[in-house]
Design a protein that fits this description.
Structural class: mainly alpha
Strand content: under 5%
Helix content: 40-55%
Number of helices: 6
Strand order of the largest sheet: 1-2
Radius of gyration: 23 Å
Length: about 150
């Protein structure tokens, strides 16, 4: 290999190393919102996160996508937590469809505080929540209004 070829390879490697170091140095200043939210929403998403209003379970999700019932239950409970003193209680009864769900705690809290009633019950009396379903506007508005009533602005 000629000296000029070795030099070109060294320069290329140095550029790659500099690029990697630059990215590593920037990472601590970036938030999940920088990657997962639209430009116009980033500032508010970062503020909401700093206020503790974004569930950890949602931080790896595409924030430009639609929202499910479970995700909104998480946001609603985080809002209620922010205005409550101490840890929130949660419903310990039977749900037909949330066991093992990453948002189970939030759904149980939302049910306990009357933020949601689920979408029905099974013949055995278990509550049906349909966590993976997209939330309807009417359900979102109802849950949000119930949180606001609990907070008593």
């Amino acid at each position: 290999m000629k000296l000029a070829e070795i030099f070109k390879e060294c320069v290329f490697v140095k550029k790659i190393i500099c690029l990697i170091i630059s990215v590593i140095m920037l990472l601590p200043t970036l938030t999940f919102a920088d990657f997962l939210a639209s430009d116009w929403a980033k500032e508010e998403v970062v503020k909401a996160d700093k206020l503790g209003l974004v569930p950890d379970e949602m931080k790896n999700d595409d924030l430009t996508a639609t929202i499910t019932r479970e995700e909104f239950a998480g946001i609603a409970v985080k809002l209620l937590e922010a205005y409550s003193e101490g840890e929130l209680q949660s419903y310990s009864g039977k749900f037909a469809d949330i066991d093992g769900n990453p948002y189970e705690h939030y759904i149980r809290c939302a049910y306990y505080y009357g933020i949601t009633n689920g979408i029905g019950k099974t013949e055995d009396g278990e509550i049906i929540f349909s966590p993976d379903e997209l939330i309807k506007r009417q359900d979102l508005a109802t849950m949000f209004a119930r949180v606001i009533k609990k907070i008593e602005f």
